[in-house]
Amino acid sequence: MPRMHDKVLVWGEIEDATIDQAARLSRMPFVTGHVALMPDAHVGMGSTIGTVFGTRGAIIPAAIGVDIGCGMVAQFLGVRAEELPDNLDELHHSIARSIPAGMGQGHRGDHRDETTRTTIEHLIAARSDWNEQDQRRAYSQFGSLGSGNHFVEICLDENDDVWAVLHSGSRGIGNALATGTRQSTCWEGML
């Protein structure tokens, strides 16, 4: 269950500095209602990353900042805890082989399914300004996690139902957009 701190609704275990930054945001005259901190919230440049809040008469690009393109999802797997094997090592290794994570990690291109290849080819065809490096980056990073606090977890809820939880990274798209580098023009079509 979330807890309330001033006008900040906190989901999960969040660092005090993050809550403090969100509390300052909640006091801005254009912020309506409360500010909700998601489980991946962290201090950002000018605004807390991983927040949800409403505004009136204002748009705040810093609320997304360099993390644009990051995301979280929880997917019910239709499996109960008692259906899982006693040892999840093989599942862990399978996930790690299928979904690259970490700085500079990506797919090697030899295990892509046809749907993914077709999606990337359509994306590349729509981007006449992409050079070979941009195209290699799309093949490598599409479907990877990024680095930092990004993860894939297998979790149980209070009913012993099994969920997959994913926190994916922007793979540098947000930083490129925020800093105006060449990559920003290349990757905007993926957003």
Short description:
This protein is an alpha+beta fold and 191 residues long.
Structural overview:
It is a single chain. By secondary structure, this protein is α+β, with helices and mostly antiparallel strands. Helices cover 30% and strands 26% of the residues. It has six helices and seven strands. The strands form two sheets. A four-stranded mixed β-sheet has the order 1-2-3-4, with helices on one face. A three-stranded antiparallel β-sheet has the order 5-7-6, with no helix packed on it. The longest helix is centred in the middle third of the chain and has 13 residues, at 114-126. The radius of gyration is 19 Å and the shape is flat. The two termini are 31 Å apart.
Topology (SSEs and partners):
Elements: E1 3-5, E2 8-10, H1 16-26, E3 31-42, E4 49-55, E5 71-80, H2 89-98, H3 114-126, H4 132-141, E6 151-156, E7 161-168, H5 173-179, H6 182-187
Parallel strand pairs: 2-3
Antiparallel strand pairs: 1-2, 3-4, 5-7, 6-7
Kindly state the percentage of residues in helix.
25-40%
Average pLDDT level: 79
How many domains? The number is 2
Q: Tell me the distance between the termini.
A: 31 Å
Rounded Rg? 19 Å
Separate helix tally: 6
The backbone outline, from C-alpha atoms, is: flat
Main beta sheet: strand number and arrangement?
4 strands, mixed
Q: Give the number of DSSP strands.
A: 7
Strand order of the largest sheet: 1-2-3-4
Strand content: 25-35%
Question: N-to-C SSE series?
Answer: EEHEEEHHHEEHH
Q: Structural class of the helix and strand makeup?
A: alpha+beta
Please mark out the parts with pLDDT under 50 across 5 or more consecutive residues, or reply none.
182-191
